Amino acid sequence: MSLIHKTAAELGSMIAAGEVSSAEVAEAHLDRMAEVEPKIRAFLHVDREVTLEQARVVDARLRAGEKLGPLAGVPIAHKDIFSTRDMPTTAASKILEGWRPPYDATVTARLREAGLVILGKTNLDEFAMGSSTENSAFHPTHNPWDLTKVPGGSSGGSSAAVAAYEAPLSTGTDTGGSIRQPAAVTGIVGMKPTYGGSSRYGVIAFASSLDTPGPFARNVLDAALLHEVFSGHDPMDSTSIDAPVPSVVEAAKHPDIAGMRIGVVKEFGGEGYQAGVLARYNEAVQLLESLGAKVVEVSCPSFTVALPAYYLIAPSECSSNLARFDAMRYGLRVGDDGTRSAEEVMALTRAAGFGPEVKRRIMLGTYALSSGYYDAYYGQAQKVRTVISREFEAAYQQVDVLVSPTTPTTAFPIGERTDDPMAMYLADLCTIPTNLAGNAAMSVPCGLADEDGLPVGLQIMAPVLADDRCYRVGAAVEKALESRWGGPLLKEAPSL
């Protein structure tokens, strides 16, 4: 088996034992990237020499006897929304093209401290606004299962890189489903930790009360190992939770769910859901029951209005956060010929630098926050958010976790929804409630849809700081399905 086919845990063990060097592992993945990247286009920035130098430094640290974590020397793809002092950080926007931050995000710093090797920066929907990675200012990313399909979004570059075996691990951010939805449609594992469980410091902000960094991997244990690396309290993030990181690795290693109470969300299913998605989801629920879990139906009526509430709250926060891109301090500057005022330069720069979806959300948010409309729109949306949180709390009094399809359909064709924002937004129908409440949630592969042979994801939701429950249930599903399938859903690198 080649190095690119090893799990992250296996690679970490091999590197620690001296069976292979970090530089050799990085080179194998860089070679894979050179082979498939022209078709996948998962990355916005790759520098082979910088990556190999990182790997050689890790090898030297290990030879010197430094005690590093279980992922030391393992390559990782990094979403281009995390600040990196030695690589451009653009958020896939022309307004930040070529910008190099003077500091690392906390997540970036923790990856480096643990000895992970950053392969490059991955593509995304501009400022993480989208569900297909078609809103990138630079190029769309393609789904390794079918190059005519999207890889999900906003973290589509990260999901595609892992699914295409360009990297064993990657990072993402989840604001309304931007880790779970791409994980589902590319057949991998994606986890949104509890809000505040992973630091937002150095993450280019979209919606500050929602943005949550999390891991992608091809199996649940690898995701748990990465989760533990970059999670935990950060004094640089005012919303960071000062509490121990849940024992997610232990949960992934011991996936016994006998006696667990699992709630099926009544509101997620029916019209608008692809038949093949519902078939695989229902089979996964039956599988959970066969493993000894008690399955009950749970009703959360306000989940049906989570989508409109989200599309008032998130754009409002985006309107505020993106005001910092003013052409005065960094990034793109248009029309500064000495004859125009600062206001004119700002207007010209923002018109040229922001893409259509970003402009749409800024305008929606600005309108929702404007005088005379604040209470009617933003205020009402926040009330809905409170009701959703209370319904989650009531549900978790009855059950240990909730489950649903991750997204209503499999990967859709590139270009199919670009002119229909509402159709695009519906991709996050099942994921948004968890973001509004701040709870933990995961997507794990649960099979292929009959109609198109594309991956389907099972969403597992858990209470705040009960992230380990997601890993426990996810690992149980993974183990049982792999036994049935004779191996992982994504057994080997796609022939691209």
Features:
Amidase signature (AS) enzymes; alpha/beta; 40% helix; 496 residues; three-stranded mixed beta sheet
What does this 3D model show about the protein?
The protein is of the alpha/beta class and 496 residues long. The chain has a single domain (3-302, 386-485), classed as Amidase signature (AS) enzymes, CATH 3.90.1300. 40% of the residues lie in helices and 12% in strands. The chain has helices at residues 8-16, 22-40, 48-63, 106-113, 156-163, 180-186, 220-230, 248-253, 275-290, 306-321, 342-353, 356-369, 375-398, 421-425, 432-437, 467-485, and strands at 43-45, 75-79, 117-122, 169-173, 189-192, 213-217, 261-265, 294-298, 401-405, 440-448, 455-462. The protein has an 8-stranded mixed β-sheet with strand order 4-6-5-10-11-9-7-8, sandwiched between helices. A 3-stranded mixed β-sheet has the order 1-3-2, sandwiched between helices. Strand 2, helix 4 and strand 3 (117-122) form a beta-alpha-beta unit. Helix 2 packs antiparallel against helix 3 (48-63), helix 10 (306-321) crosses helix 12 and helix 10 packs across helix 13. It is globular. 58% of the residues are buried.
**Number of separate strands:** 11
Task: List SSEs in N-to-C order.
Answer: HHEHEHEHEHEEHHEHEHHHHEHHEEH
Report the CATH superfamily. Answer: Amidase signature (AS) domain
| Structural class designation | alpha/beta
